[in-house]
Amino acid sequence: MFQLHLAFIVSQDIVLTVVVVVCLLIGTTKYVMDILLGIALSSHLNFQNPYQEVHPHARLETERYVAGVYTNSEDNTSFYGGRYWEVGPDYFNIGIEAGVVTGYETFNTEIMPYGRAYFNTNNTTFFVAPSYEKTATGLQDGIIIGMEFLFKVN
Question: What is the DSSP string of 11-70?
């Protein structure tokens, strides 16, 4: 394991995300950070358009903060940073995660909020997240459900 002491050299649309992620993690430099690699499988309920349902994922995690990169539902690369709150012993957790994310071209914004509720047991996380999509008639509410497999590298 190692402590976080990173500097980012970035370009264009991810600059704001990196600034936010670094700000979120600045206060966690005294904590050990875990490196996780994984894959998530998702299903988009109440949506009209087809979406990517397989999401390769790399994640940095401390006792309460997360940052990572993954292939999102629009098949773009997304960077994210946030905080999580959970209850339960190490082998069985229920929690919520909230933060900011990039990479969703459909919404014409470089950065947007995200949130999800989850149940975690061992290396498997089951999650649900509110979402919406743009359609010809406006915004359509929906829900994303999924399963994520994360494996600690360090």
Answer: -GGGHHHHHHHHHHHHTTTTSEEEEEEEEEEEEEET-SS----EEEEEEEE-SSEEEEEE
pLDDT tens-digit map of 87-126: 988 778 999 999 999 998 877 778 999 999 999 988 899 9
On whether the pTM is more than 0.85, the answer is: no
> CA–CA separation, 127 vs 141, rounded Å?
17
* For the chain, domain boundaries: 2-152
CATH of 2-152, one of 2.40.160, 3.30.420, 1.10.238, 3.30.70: 2.40.160
The answer to whether 114 and 120 have CB atoms below 8 angstroms apart is no
What pLDDT, in 10s, does the model give residues 21-55? Answer: 555 555 545 567 899 999 999 999 999 889 999 99
Q: What are phi and psi of 5, to 5 degrees?
A: -145, 75
CB 97 within 8 A of CB 120: no
